Amino acid sequence: MHKTALAAACAALLLSACASTSSSKPAASATEGSKKVAALTADAYPSTYRPIPSAPVLLAGATVLDGLGKRLENADVLMAEGKIVAVGNGISAPENVIRVDARGKWVTPGIIDVHSHLGVYPSPAASAHSDGNEMTAPVTAQVWAEHSIWPQDPGFATALAGGVTSLQILPGSANLIGGRGVTLKNVYSTSYQGMKFPGAPWGLKMACGENPKRVYGNKGGPSTRMGNIAGFRAAFIEAAEYLKKQEAGKDSGKRDLKQETLAATLNGDILVHNHCYRADEMAIMLDLAKEFGFRISAFHHGVEAYKLADRLAAEGVCAALWADWWGFKMESFDGIQENLLLVDRAPGGCAIVHSDSGEGIQRLNQEAAKIIANGRRIGIDITPEHAIRWLTSNAAKSMGIDHLTGSLEPGKMADVVLWNGNPFSSYALAEQVYIDGARLYDRADVRLQPQSDFLLGQELMQGDAR
């Protein structure tokens, strides 16, 4: 691509962004009530994230998985101005391009973890900064996980080394409704707002099953699964009344943070991410969502998702799953290693590999590789170009950011990983990781191996202890 073509492409991207911004503004004739409804998702703590400037980069001669099911051999990926500019064979690049010889290597979109607790349950594990569960009431929709995030968590850097470029940080699963989750770009910052993914919708963490009834059984309830559902219904009945008053412009003038979150969820502006293991409970939750008019974006953990894979696909609900965790409590007992495969094979199925672990997030590509191996064992062959969707575009879809990232398409964020080989090999390593076109991790360059402030000097202290 010549300089003029590159400039034209960048100009087109800017025009597209301007058009998108202008179309999202409320009409001048909007009623007072609709303005108040829009205010339900007004952000008092907006993102301050700014992409790190970088010269154009060309990854040349790689095997490219685009994140949407295509595989290209001996292909190039051109990034400029923080965006993907072109993907294909024999791409011409401007004179000032940074050319990376990617022959024999693989390129994928950056990995996206839809279920992480980094920052709210940071390392080292200590009660002093264990801030993921607000266990003071079964419904705590008023809390936001972002206000617990510790940006110095060393887990962010180790996740980056594993190719993770974006991640959703969720509250824990103690409560029926645990609060808002937030999507981050995996960049170093002294504040979480410097990591906050611009334009990403909030997620609402909900949990059915054993956890809420165990936590609150001796604290006033719920103490049963029927109590769980009654608690959900009561919360959304109240939220529906609140929303009706907001739409009519008849609020009391006093803000209610809990009702703002629940009303915005009913309105579709906050996406529901539902911790749920058993198939029968997932079915109940789908019916509950239908009763109150909201949609579940994804079930998380879903050990029995395979039992209702067709319904999940038909209703457009994703399933964020482990490769092989099971049996650690009764509701996780009926797991099978083919779970994700069966969710994925249903027509229109949306399967995602998630971590829920500060260690698992470092090797999500290998978790996906386990699933490929389990498929091969029973005669289901999964290609790398298909499996990469479990880590990229499907996760982005469930988080409402697939129009911005998750695949290597011109105009999308240049969140890209260069691997030393097939990312689903046991020997796979992320060699370089780009976020918005800037190389933020390089396995061969210690200067580009970020380290948490918390870890600085630790080796000296450990040396003194010896």
What do you see in this structure?
- With 466 residues, the chain is an alpha/beta fold.
- The chain has a single domain (3-458), classed as Metal-dependent hydrolases (TIM Barrel).
- It has helices at residues 3-23, 32-38, 155-161, 210-216, 225-248, 257-266, 279-292, 309-314, 339-345, 364-377, 384-387, 393-399, 458-465, and strands spanning 57-65, 71-80, 83-88, 98-101, 106-109, 111-116, 164-169, 177-185, 203-207, 271-276, 296-301, 318-321, 351-353, 416-419, 430-435, 438-442.
- Strands 1, 2, 3, 4, 5, 14, 15 and 16 form an eight-stranded mixed beta sheet that branches. It has an eight-stranded mixed beta sheet with strand order 6-7-8-9-10-11-12-13.
- α2 crosses α5 and α5 (225-248) packs across α6 (257-266).
How do the strands and helices of this protein lay out in sequence?
Layout (H helix, E strand, L loop, with lengths): L2 H21 L8 H7 L18 E9 L5 E10 L2 E6 L9 E4 L4 E4 L1 E6 L38 H7 L2 E6 L7 E9 L17 E5 L2 H7 L8 H24 L8 H10 L4 E6 L2 H14 L3 E6 L7 H6 L3 E4 L17 H7 L5 E3 L10 H14 L6 H4 L5 H7 L16 E4 L10 E6 L2 E5 L15 H8 L1
Parallel strand pairs: 1-4, 1-5, 6-7, 9-10, 10-11, 11-12, 12-13
Antiparallel strand pairs: 1-2, 2-3, 5-14, 7-8, 8-9, 14-15, 15-16
Helix pairs in contact: 2-5, 5-6
